[in-house]
Structure formats: structure tokens, C-alpha cells
Amino acid sequence: MIDRSIDDLPRWLIAIGPVLILGTVFATLYLTSPFGDLSGASEASTLEIVWMLTVIGAIAGIIPVAIGMLWFPFIRDLDPRYLHAFLALAAGVLAFIALEMTEDMIFDYGVNVESTALLGTTVDGAVLAATAAILGVGGTFVVMYLASEWRQRKMASTEKNGLEIAYLVALALGLHSIGEGLGIGVAYIQEDATMLMLLVLAFIMHNVMEGPTVVAAVARERETPPLRHFAMMGVIAGGPVILGGWIGSFAQSNLLAVLFFAIAIGAILQVLIEVGDLIRFDAEAVLTRTNAATFSFGFALMFLLEDVLTEILLEGWLIPV
Fold it and tell me: β-strand 121-123 against 116-118: which pairing, if any?
């Protein structure tokens, strides 16, 4: 069996292939409106829920990471400032999603958490929601931070080649992908079509940028790794979105929804710091005019998408009235 390399692909396919694939994914989402009618999600069988979330997770996680990896041959000659601009755009998208999820966590789910008896006393639902939110955001952030510190020490303490470092980066990204999946699973089981579509679109845009991030460590190596390594790193970085979706689908109560959203927010916050560190590694300053502009563009783009999707839903384009 011949072990083929990504460099064996035609140059024209490498250049326009990722754009065509990404366009196909977005067109498929638009034409099929797969998340428009979730009225039966809560009554679906476990197998049906697992299968649907597997498909959604693959669309939001594995596929976009693979698309981003297809630009690997060009990363070798890419000016770092342009790669930084793409990373800043992805950060803007995630920042909007974190704020959007925070708003939903507080106003849609947090205020609706019922009071419960605890050690003979009645605990107010808002207190429970606030506690779950703080523990979810703070705990996830700390775990992600410690994992990041461990990865950096591991990379600095041993002589590792670029491929080994790329696998470590993919592992770190995979941890936060679980948080992305949690948000998707919660939105799905809560039958929130607007939030689900926004999450999928946002994570597709972000995870496309994860592809170059994973393979950046091997971009300047003399020998290109076989395709099987790219496939494995793509699964490690994007596949956990599926796992997170399965876990998030168990959010049958508002309290669990708050907790899962909080975990996702904590993961996103740590990723924003990771993006800043990646940029700072190659550049003197993180906050440049170009990075600020692309960050703002990513944030504004998701803001516009929210308004458009909301209007479509209200007019009954996705959900029959």
C-alpha cells in the first residue's frame, strides 16, 4: 500500500478545494435547513438523538478542521501576520458565541431553574443557577489552563519533532471541542433552532482556523507527514464535538443546561487566551490594527447572522407556523 502525502494533491485543488468544500457545507445547511424543526427532539429515541448529534458534531468539528488542514502547503510560505489575522477573526466569532451563551444561560435558563430542597432548606433556583454557572465557567477554565500549562512544559522539556508537537496541539484543541459540543447538545435537546444553527455556523468558521493551527508546527519541516497523520489529528481536534454533543443532550433540566453552557463558556475563554498566546509567540504585539479589524469583523458577522436567522425563524422559513 502506497502511503500518499498531501503534497501529492494537485495545486489547483489545494487552492480552491477548501473554499468549495466550505461553500458546499454552508449551502447544504441553508438548503436543507436541518435544524429548523426540533419540536420532536425531546421525544426522539436515544439512538436517534445520538445519530443526529453525531452528524451535527462531524459537520461542526471534524469536517471544518479537515478543510483548514488542506491549506497546509501554503502555510509554509504564509506571512505570520495573515495567519494571525485569521486566528483573530476566529476569536471574534467565539467571543460573540460566549456572550450569546451567557445571555441565554442567565435570562432563558437561569431564571427558570426551580427551587429545590437541600439539607432540609429550600434553595432558590437563581442561587442554584449562579452556583452552577460559576463552578462550570471557573472549573472548566482552570482545568483547561492547567492542561495548557502541562502541554507547554511537555513541549519545552523534551526534544520533540514538529509532528509530535502538532499532536499535542490537536489534543489541547480537542479538550475545548468538548465544550463546543456541550453547547450544541444543550441547544438541540432544548429545541432552540436559532442557537443550534448559530453554534454550528460559528464552530465551522472557528474550526476551519483550527486546521492551520494544528499543522503549523510541521509547516516548515523538510518532510511532509503522511495523510494518515492529518486525518488522525483532525479527529483528535474536532471529534470531541460529537462527544460533547452526546453529553449535552442529557440536559433535560434548566439547571443542567446552565451547567453545560457554563462549561462551554469556560472552554471558549481559555481558547481565546490560547489564540492570544499563539499570536504573541510569533509577533511583538497581539493587538494590531489588522487583528483588531478581523476580530471585530468576526464578532459583527455573527451578530448579523443572529438577526438574519432570528428573522427567518419568525417568518416561518425554517419552522412552520
Answer: antiparallel
Residue 320 domain-assigned? no
| Count of domains observed in the chain | 1
Cα–Cα distances (Å) from 161 to 153, 155, 303, in that order, read 15, 9, 41
| In-domain check, residue 7 | no
Provide the sign of the torsion angle of the four alpha carbons 61, 90, 269, 216, taken in this order. Answer: positive
Is residue 321 assigned to a domain? no
Residue 191, Cβ neighbours under 10 Å: how many?
Answer: 16
Tens-of-pLDDT digits for all 321 residues of the chain? Answer: 344 555 566 666 666 767 777 777 777 776 666 666 666 666 777 888 888 899 889 988 998 888 888 777 776 666 777 777 877 887 888 888 888 888 878 876 665 666 555 445 445 677 788 888 889 899 988 988 888 777 677 666 555 566 777 787 787 778 778 878 888 888 888 888 777 887 888 788 778 877 877 777 676 566 777 888 888 999 998 999 999 899 888 766 777 778 888 888 888 888 888 778 777 766 667 778 888 998 998 888 878 766 665 566 555 544 443
Range of the domain at 120: 16-314
